[in-house]
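Thread: Newbie trying to understand structure tokens

Hi all, I'm a second-year student working on a class project, and my supervisor (Dr. K.) asked me to get a predicted structure for one chain before our next meeting. I've only ever worked with sequences, so writing a 3D structure as a token string is new to me. If someone could post the tokens and maybe explain what I'm looking at, I'd be very grateful. Here's the chain:
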Amino acid sequence: MQIKKPTIYAIQALREYQSTQDILTTPDIARRLDISIAYATKVNRALVEGGFVEAIRGSMGGHRLAKDLRKIPIAELIGQIDGGLLDEEPGETKDMLDIRRKLRDTLAERGWGKPVASLL
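---
Reply by user tm_fold:
Sure, no problem. This is what the structure looks like when written as tokens:
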């Protein structure tokens, strides 16, 4: 399985959110990760949709960490950012579900079940 750039940037962004109690704006994240604001927006949107960070509205708004990174499995983050590669899909045969579950178990055994915090 190839880990894609959006996942790497998401992990880096989570590290930035964890490093401060401040609310960080998308331009803050873009600057800290040396990526475009458009790309930072994409990363933040995925992190918000996954519930990893929360969006704060208003003139002093931005984003801040919403979950304890010690409680988020690496596989959950990868699934959210890379599109749920291991999620079960409607209409899958029993054999397909068994393979998907075995793959998920194998990844968990190899550390994908470790918390995101272990990467930071």
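A couple of things are worth pointing out once you decode it. The chain has two domains: 5-65, 73-119. The mean pLDDT is 84. Feel free to ask follow-ups in this thread.
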